[in-house]
Amino acid sequence: METESEPYVRLATLRQLHRVVADLNTARSLADTLQTVVDGIVVGLGYELACVNLVRPDGDLVVAAFAGDPAAEALITGRVGSRASWGRRLTMGECWDGLRFIPHTEGWVLLEDDVPQWHTDGPDPRFEDEWHPEDRLYAPMYASGGELLGVISVDRPRNGRRPGAWGREALQMYAFQAAIAISNARLRANMQRALVRLEREQQALRASEESFRQAFEYAPSGMAIAEMGGDQHGRLLRTNDALCRLLGRPASVLRRYSFSDLVHPEDIGTLLRTSAEGGRAELRLGRRDGTYVWVSLRNSVVADAADGPRFLLTHVEDIEERKRHELQLAHRASHDSLTGLPNSAELRARLGARLCRRPQSARASAIEALDAAYEGREVHSGHDGHEVRVEAGGAGEHGFQPDGPDRYTASDPFDFPGAPTAPTDGPYDHHVHTVAPAADVDDGTKGLAVLFCDLDGFKSINDRFGHHTGDAVLIEVARRLTTGVRDGDTVARLGGDEFVVLADGLGAADAADLAVRLRNAIIPPIRVDGRAVRVGASFGIGWASCGMSADEVLRSADQRMYIEKRSRSKAHRRAG
Question: Is 0.85 surpassed by the pTM of this model?
Answer without folding.
Answer: no
